[in-house]
Design goal:
It is a single chain. The chain is built from no helices and ten strands. A six-stranded mixed sheet has the order 2-10-9-4-5-6, with no helix packed on it. It has a four-stranded antiparallel sheet with strand order 1-3-8-7, with no helix packed on it. It is mostly beta strands.
C-alpha cells in the first residue's frame, strides 16, 4: 500500500523560507520520478516541481529560482526547499509520483499547509 506523509508546512511571512519533507513507502521509490504539487483554496491542484530518477529537476515557472526539490533514495524521502516565499505560494502541498497524467492520480497524502502572510 502506497503511503505518502508530508510535513514541514507552517505560517511564514513573505520573503521567508520553509523546508517540506515527504516520507514515502509502498513502492520502489528509487525507480520513480517524484513530484511536489500544491492546491490553493478554491483552485485546482497544480504541479510545483519534479525530481526525475535521472537526476534532472523541473519547476513550475512560478517557483523557478526560489524552490529546490531534492530526494534521498536511501530514506525514501523527497524534500522541497522554499525560499523567498510569496503570498501566492499559500496552499496545501502534496508529494506523489510524477507522470504526465499526474492529475488523474486518485491516491494522495494529507498534505501540509503552507501559509504566507504578513
Amino acid at each position: 500500500q502506497v503511503t505518502l506523509v508530508e510535513s514541514g508546512g507552517g505560517f511564514v511571512q513573505p520573503g521567508g523560507s520553509l523546508r517540506l519533507s515527504c516520507a514515502v513507502s509502498g513502492f520502489n521509490f528509487r525507480f520513480d520520478d517524484m513530484g511536489w504539487y500544491r492546491q490553493a483554496a478554491g483552485k485546482q491542484r497544480e504541479f510545483v516541481a519534479v525530481s526525475y530518477v535521472s537526476g534532472i529537476t523541473v519547476y513550475n515557472d512560478a517557483v523557478k529560482g526560489r524552490f529546490t526539490i531534492s530526494r534521498d533514495n536511501a530514506k525514501s524521502m523527497v524534500f522541497l526547499e522554499m525560499n523567498n516565499l510569496r503570498s501566492e505560494d499559500t496552499g496545501v502541498y502534496y508529494c506523489n509520483i510524477h507522470r504526465s497524467d499526474w492529475y488523474t492520480i486518485d491516491s494522495w497524502g494529507q498534505g501540509t499547509q503552507v501559509t504566507v502572510s504578513s
